[in-house]
Each structure stands twice: as structure tokens, then as C-alpha cells.
Amino acid sequence: MTETQFDVLAIGNAIVDVIAQADEAFLTRHQVPKGTMSLIDSERAESLYEAMGPGIEMSGGSAGNTVAGVAALGGRAAYVGKVRDDWLGKVFTHDIRAAGVRFETTMAEQGPPTARSLILVTPDAERSMNTYLGACVELGPDDVDPEVVAQAKVTYLEGYLWDPAGGKAAFRKASRLAQASGRKVALSLSDPFCVDRYRDEFRDFVGEGVDVLFANEEEICSLYQAPDFDAALQAVRGHCEIAVLTRGVHGSVVVTGDEVHVIDAETVAKVVDTTGAGDLFAAGFLFGITNGRDLPTAARIGSLAAAEVVAHYGARPEASLKRLLEARGL
Description:
This protein is α/β, with parallel strands linked by helices. The chain has helices at 24-29, 42-51, 62-72, 87-98, 146-150, 165-180, 192-209, 217-224, 229-236, 277-290, 295-310, 321-328, and strands at 6-11, 15-21, 37-39, 56-60, 77-80, 101-103, 115-121, 127-132, 152-158, 184-188, 212-216, 242-246, 252-256, 259-263. It contains 12 helices and 14 strands.
């Protein structure tokens, strides 16, 4: 296989997060579904933003968080996502480039503004996301550069982007290009509601164009309409090359062929905010498999990265993941 320029290329929704603390009563009062991602329109985004308490603004988006994590671990990362040529678009662009990620997607000059996600964190550290997709819906296959895909060991696709027709077309194009270049394709199912909307399409896509599948326990059970985790594990076995299944405090399970690797979660003194835990786990795992680690070690790196991000507010690492990795000898 020829040399590559990137370990991971990610394609996803380019979003600026607004994170604020909230209690259960606030969620009930404003009819916010707890613990999942809900898509909202511009009017709802404005009214909810006005009702929220003081917030922290930072660049986010699931796949964006993942490639920021890959770069923080010392990996080579690139990103495709659509922003508008507005203030938040400039903020997102600055932040992801400052994280060491190549980001060259052309800004939209008209249409909806840059996307934002209003994230409410309750005292139990659970996050409830309310996302206005804005300019993200403008992303399409023309934004996928064949040369960049060919230069990435893994192209990582964010399931949230399956909603817009253009995003779905971009995924299919990227998958075909990666396969034609002898590269790997990874997919995150992103959210159980996302799986519920597109279960059959996701199952077909996984079987046809995905080498590495990321899912949490609820998502994988939903994908196969399995009654429990063990049944879902058996269903995914053989459907793709590698299935990476996360189980929160119970760690993760990596399935490939006849192998099943069970990895413990890292101990965290205090969980502050679970936003980005799955994104950073994916970052660690993808960094591991593209840099010569075996599957159990890659999953341990994922657990280490996830543990760092849940210990503070925000979905991108604050500590040096590279130093944490070196300190643990991973």
C-alpha cells in the first residue's frame, strides 16, 4: 500500500457547541429529550438559547471532535464539514486548524448560518443536545476531494450526517473512493434516534461499505432490533470487519471475526460532562489502529481519551493526550 498523508479523514457536521448547566426541571419545562440529540429549527434554537443559563462556546461536531482527538494524540488528521462565511464559521475554522487538523472545505457564501448545538448538562453529567444544522445541510459530494480520501488510511463518517440528502451522497462517494484506493471506511452510528430513522439504510451501508463500525449499546441493539447486547453482538459479527461497541462505565467490546476483546473503562475521579466521550473513544481507537497498535491496545487508548474528556466541560481534550499516552506506555 502506498504512503499516506493522513491517518484519519473525518466527514461530519461542523458545529459550534454552546454548553450550559441545567436541571431536570428545565428539560421538562422546555420539552428537551434527555440524553440524546434532537434536531431543531432556527426558531427553536433562538428561543432555547434565550432560556439557557450562561454557556461556554466552543467548536464541536462529533467527527470534528474525533479528528481533534486524533491530532491531540499525535496523529495526522483531516476534516470535511460545511460552515457559512459568518462569525461562527470563522470560529470553527480557526479552532479545528489550531488543533492541527487540515480543514479546507469551501465556506458557503449564502444560505443558512453555521450550525450550532445547544447542549444542556444535568447534574448527573448527562448531556442533552439540541442541534440546528444550518450550513451543514449544504455539504454534498462535491466537497469530498478524491485525492484527500486516497491519502487517508481511514475515512471516518459521522452518522448524524445521514439526515441531509447531500451528506448521504457525500458518504457514499467517500466510501467508494476509499475502497477503490484500498483504504478503510469507519462509521459511527452517532445516536439511537439516528439509527431508528435509517435502520435499514444503515444496515445495508454497513454491509456494503464499512470496515469499522462504532456504536454504543443502545445504538447497536437498535440497529439489529436485538433484545439485548449479547444478541446484538452476535448480529454484528461478520457484518463488517471490526465492530467497536462502547458500554459506558462497563468499558468496550471489540469484535472481529472469531475474536472478542473486552476492555475495561478507565477510572475517572469525577464525571463532569459526557459530551464527546464516544467521539474521543473513536479518536483513540482510530489513532491506535492507524499507528500499529493491536485492537485491544487501540481500545485502551480510546478509553484513556474518553476518560480525559468526561472530566471537564466540552467535547475536546484539555490535557495533552499525547503525554497521557506516553505516561501509560500505550
